[in-house]
Design a protein that fits this description.
With about 375 residues, the protein is an alpha+beta fold. The protein folds into three domains: about 100 residues, Rossmann fold; about 150 residues, ATP-grasp fold, B domain (D-amino Acid Aminotransferase, Chain A, domain 1, 2-Layer Sandwich), CATH 3.30.470; about 80 residues, no CATH class. A six-stranded mixed β-sheet has the order 4-3-2-1-5-6. A six-stranded antiparallel β-sheet has the order 7-12-8-9-10-11, covered by helices on one side. A five-stranded antiparallel β-sheet has the order 15-14-13-16-17. Strand 5, helix 2 and strand 6 form a beta-alpha-beta unit. About 30% of the residues are buried. The C terminus is likely disordered. InterPro entries: YheC/D. Pfam families: ATPgrasp_YheCD. This is YheC/YheD family protein.
């Protein structure tokens, strides 16, 4: 039997170094060889890769050349246009290679996800009213009705590029984050705002949603992060949940934007027993329905981070879904789950391998 290899696909080899190293340390017990590489490091003529292999004898990554691995765990985050242009076509080509099995195929952009989920009677009730922004006139129209709105880039994660807009009788204030720093921009006329928004929309595609009031009783923004993964039987399960709390005066709770993780238990202790039961019921509905629906509408997935908004009136909102979720909130609030997270990709590899061998038997019969 050929040795099984699991490749961590990253735009930058040192990205998530701690996470990929912890995973690789555990590969030996599954008899799985671990490699990591960038999409651009594949030689198109030989299909050999110049990357790094995890050496179990010294417990370190070493530079090496190797063939395309049997399994690929895609952890590519495209933050720059340059990396999208160079790396994304190669990743798409790899996904079509019948010799390679991706643990998960990722999700489309935010607009496409919301459009696909809108037709589902259960999940659509948790989705904020969302529209694709073609021109600044749509933003002005929304401000006339609600005096506020939220703009989100259709691609991107970690709160990057999200803009909150608030209108008063005298000014229109734009708020956004540069890392943990909150920035504001003030306009004194809709014409001025319109010109600025047209330039923005020319650079990037945005969706627009209501600016929901997602603050705790002390005025801090927060959201609930649900972390779901497939287990060794290929079944979805909730690995854990945590809460991300932003700083006072911010509108984002992402850790990248200065938020801090809290345990779900600590946060939910301020809820009444009735509120807690109702919230848990809503979360269970989302946990049971959403992953299967996403796979049905898109492609196979291995894990999902779901960001949930909980407003003061008790309404529950699905704010975002991420097929390449970070683990910081979960590991910091539930350190006992770290080992489970490090073993999960190997268990899932073996499940997929078993499925493939069963298919082979069926074909031969």
């Amino acid at each position: 039997m050929e040795p099984i290899s699991l490749g961590f696909l990253v735009v930058n080899r040192k990205h998530e170094n701690g996470y990929t190293t912890e995973l690789a340390k555990r590969g030996q017990q599954f008899n799985i060889e671990c490699v990591r590489f960038e999409p651009t490091s594949i030689d198109p003529s030989t299909l050999m890769i110049s990357g790094e292999k995890f050496d179990y004898s010294i417990q370190k990554w070493v530079s090496d050349t190797f063939p395309i691995p049997s399994f690929i765990y895609d952890r590519c985050f495209y933050n720059r246009k340059e990396s999208i242009k160079k790396s994304k076509p190669i990743v798409n080509w790899l996904k079509k290679n019948p010799q390679v099995t991706f643990l998960g195929f990722g999700l489309p952009d935010k607009w496409r996800i919301f459009s696909l989920l809108q037709s589902d009677p259960i999940i659509s009730s948790y989705l904020p009213d969302t529209e694709l922004v073609y021109h600044a006139e749509q933003i002005l129209r929304r401000l006339k009705i609600d005096s506020s709105c939220l703009l989100k880039p259709v691609t991107g994660s970690r709160g990057n590029g999200i803009i909150a807009i608030n209108q008063t009788s005298e000014t229109i204030t734009l708020t956004y984050h540069k890392g943990s720093d909150k920035k504001t921009k003030i306009f004194y006329s809709t014409k001025e705002l319109s010109g600025w928004c047209e330039k923005l929309l020319h650079q990037q595609t945005y969706i627009m949603q209501p600016l929901l009031s997602l603050y705790d009783s002390h005025g801090y923004p927060f959201d609930i992060r649900l972390f779901l993964q497939k287990n060794q039987y290929g079944k979805w399960e909730l690995v854990g949940k945590g809460v991300r709390k932003g700083y006072y005066g911010s509108f984002l709770s992402n850790l990248n934007a200065g938020g801090e993780p809290l345990t779900y238990e600590e946060w939910s202790s301020s809820l009444t027993p009735k509120q807690k039961v109702l919230l848990e019921d809503e979360l269970n509905t989302i946990i049971n329905q959403l992953p299967l629906l996403l796979e049905n509408k898109c492609h196979r997935l291995f894990e999902i981070g779901i960001d949930i908004g909980y407003s003061k009136d008790g309404s529950v909102w699905i704010l975002d879904m991420n097929s390449k979720p970070g683990r910081k909130t979960l590991i910091e609030t539930n350190p006992q789950l770290a080992e489970k997270l490090y073993l999960a990709p190997f268990h899932y590899c073996l499940h997929l391998l078993k499925q493939d061998s069963q298919k082979g038997v069926e074909i031969n019969e």
